[in-house]
Design goal:
The chain is an alpha/beta fold and 403 residues long. It is built from 15 helices and eleven strands. It has helices at 3-7, 15-21, 49-57, 73-86, 97-106, 123-131, 148-153, 177-186, 199-202, 239-249, 255-266, 268-286, 306-312, 329-338, 385-402; strands spanning 90-94, 114-118, 139-143, 159-165, 190-194, 212-216, 230-234, 292-296, 319-324, 354-358, 375-379. Strands 1-7-6-5-4-2-3 form a seven-stranded mixed β-sheet, sandwiched between helices. A four-stranded antiparallel β-sheet has the order 8-9-11-10, with helices on one face. Helix 4 runs parallel beside helix 11. It is globular and about 80 Å long. The mean pLDDT is 95. It binds pyridoxal-5'-phosphate (PLP). Residues 96-98, 101, 122, 169, 194, 196, 216, 218-219, 228, 230, 347 line the site of pyridoxal-5'-phosphate. The site of pyridoxal-5'-phosphate has 14 residues, from helix 5.
Length: 403
């Protein structure tokens, strides 16, 4: 018996065996923690051959655990919560918002199929269609997000998917999701919606005809700019195909990131209320500025999408667009460089305010961008709105000085 084995002589196992087996089923008395445990796993152990067989057969069912790649209790806690919040049948965690876009589309198409994508779509979604799907014989056409007749005219017998996003990335067009769903379903196509902006709180996609709802959990669900995550929410009818597709692609998410998303989710409602309040305050102030030509935010009564938004959505988040009156690139640069509270960087949905320059005309092919001046995308964070306005005010002074 080695010295270390003797040191733990109250067990029949030798030390090296103890190292491998002790503490895996701790004896616990008393209560339990508020939060679900972060369960790290590759191998999942089964109690019997029968259980192993059953779990393996049910691998595409989101509530069965069979191997770490398919997630653990931690993942299931998030998936169940998000599905319930949006009224979905099931939800699936994937490593990023873009992965959620990818798996949702791939679950519905094969070579020879066709999909219709809103011209205002998040640019990397377009990138996936052009740079990936095309290579495998799936063709994409883009439709005017505001024109249902344009959509209708572009259907083919091979059209399997109508891809929507409301409001659109950068330009915030509101799409009529129930009307689009009706047209799509008449043609035997499924509707996928990128619901990142509204979150499961402000748009209940399945009650409006959507078949698959995708989220960049990276944004408001994680909510603190510290993890990448995607979620794919499915109806009863689309669940199996999405789960199977994700399994084939080999996607897996680390439980620590899932934990951050679960933690973020707990405060989604109080954060979104503030994001919305601040965005409205900034928009109202910006609308009075002579440098500003247009705002793109459906919660504003003067926004062209306001009526649709009011009919279908339960709130607005903190992301919106601004078009300035024509001014030099240097002046826009001076504006952005002088901002102190608004950070400059991609992504959004954290507690902090952000500002980036945008170029909508670079990302559309079915419609023409009608803007004349430079455009920006702002994210209203959780700061005090007065401080944010003061920051914008001093930045406008820099813009004018550089004009
Ligand atoms: C950010 C974003 C995505 C992609 O999410 P990632 O987690 O960054 O991959 C998808 N859709 C929209 C609308 C987004 O803003």
């Amino acid at each position: 018996m080695s010295k270390s084995d003797r040191a733990s002589s109250n067990s029949k196992m030798k030390f090296d065996t103890q190292l491998a087996h002790l503490g895996r089923r701790p004896t616990v008395k008393g209560g339990h923690a508020v939060n679900v445990p972060v369960v790290h796993a590759s191998t999942i152990l089964f109690d019997s051959v029968e259980q192993m067989k059953e779990a393996t057969q049910n691998r595409s069912d989101p509530n069965w655990i069979h191997y770490g790649r398919g997630g653990t209790q931690t993942h299931i806690a998030l998936q169940e919560s998000v599905a319930e919040l949006e009224g979905a049948h099931a939800a699936l965690c994937v490593p990023s918002g873009l992965a959620a876009v990818v798996v949702s589309i791939l679950s519905q198409v094969q070579a020879g199929d066709h999909l219709l994508v809103a011209d205002s779509v998040y640019a990397p979604t377009r990138g996936f269609c052009e740079g990936f799907l095309k290579k495998f014989g799936v063709e994409t056409d883009y439709y005017n997000p505001l024109d249902i007749d344009d959509l209708r005219s572009k259907f083919r017998t091979e059209t399997r998917v109508v891809y929507t996003e409301a409001p659109g990335s950068l330009t915030f067009e509101m799409q009529d999701i129930p009307a689009i769903s009706e047209v799509a379903h008449t043609h035997g196509a499924k509707v996928i919606l990128d619901n990142t902006w509204a979150t499961p709180m402000y748009f209940k996609s399945f009650a409006h005809g959507v078949d698959i709802s995708v989220h960049a959990g990276t944004k408001y669900i994680v909510g603190h700019s510290d993890a990448m995550l995607g979620l794919v929410l499915t109806s009863d009818e689309t669940t199996a195909a999405v789960q199977r597709q994700a399994d084939l692609l080999g996607y897996a998410c680390g439980p620590d990131d899932i934990y951050l998303a679960l933690r973020g989710l707990r405060t989604l409602s109080v954060r979104l209320e503030r994001h919305q309040k601040n965005a409205l305050a900034l928009c109202n102030w910006l609308s009075q500025r002579r440098e500003v030509a247009r705002l793109f935010y459906p919660a504003l009564p003067e926004d062209p999408g306001h009526e649709l938004w009011k009919r279908d959505f339960l709130g607005a988040s903190g992301l919106f667009g601004v078009e300035l009156h024509p001014v030099s690139d240097d002046a826009v640069g001076a504006f952005l460089n002088s901002l102190k509270l608004f950070g400059m960087g991609y992504s959004w949905g954290g507690y902090e305010s952000l500002a980036i320059p945008t170029k909508p005309s670079d990302y559309r092919t079915a419609t023409q961008w009608d803007g004349h001046g430079p455009t920006l995308r702002l994210h209203a964070g959780l700061e005090d709105a007065d401080d944010l306005i003061q920051d914008l005010e001093q930045a406008f002074a820099q813009l004018r000085a550089a004009s």
